[in-house]
Amino acid sequence: MRRRTKSISTVHLGQFSRETANAIAGELEKAGIVWWYKEPGYISQVWEFGVRLFVDRDRLAEAKDIAERVTADRGRRQG
User: Fold this and answer.
1) Does residue 1 lie within any of the structural domains?
2) How many domains, the chain?
């Protein structure tokens, strides 16, 4: 018997520097939130900043909280 897996839809979480995106991704992993990323292409990197992160639509609110926390923590360390 075949087990049915849940279909996941992703939504845009935000666009971040590569370092911040990596930190956020680590926290998303810890929280068990499905995510993926898209980096700008060779030509579009001229005008497009950073890495875009996408997360499971059903866990967007939690992912936003994580992104805000990580971004704030990184800002305090750099500032």
Assistant:
1) no
2) 1
Coil vs helix vs strand at 5: coil
Domain of residue 22 covers 10-78
Cα–Cα distance, 3 to 57 (Å, whole number) = 22
In this prediction the pTM is: 0.83
Distance, in Å, from the CA atom of 44 to the CA atom of 48, rounded to the nearest integer, reads 6
Is the model's pLDDT at 2 over the cut of 70?
no
β-bridge pairing 10-16 and 35-38: unpaired
- Residue 60 CB burial class (10 angstroms; 0-12, 13-18, ≥19): middle
Name the residue type at position 70.
V
Residue that has been written with the tokens 């998303």 in this structure: 28
Q: Does residue 43 belong to any structural domain of this protein?
A: yes
- pLDDT (tens digit, 9 = 90+) per residue, 6-42? 788 999 999 999 999 999 999 999 999 999 999 877 7
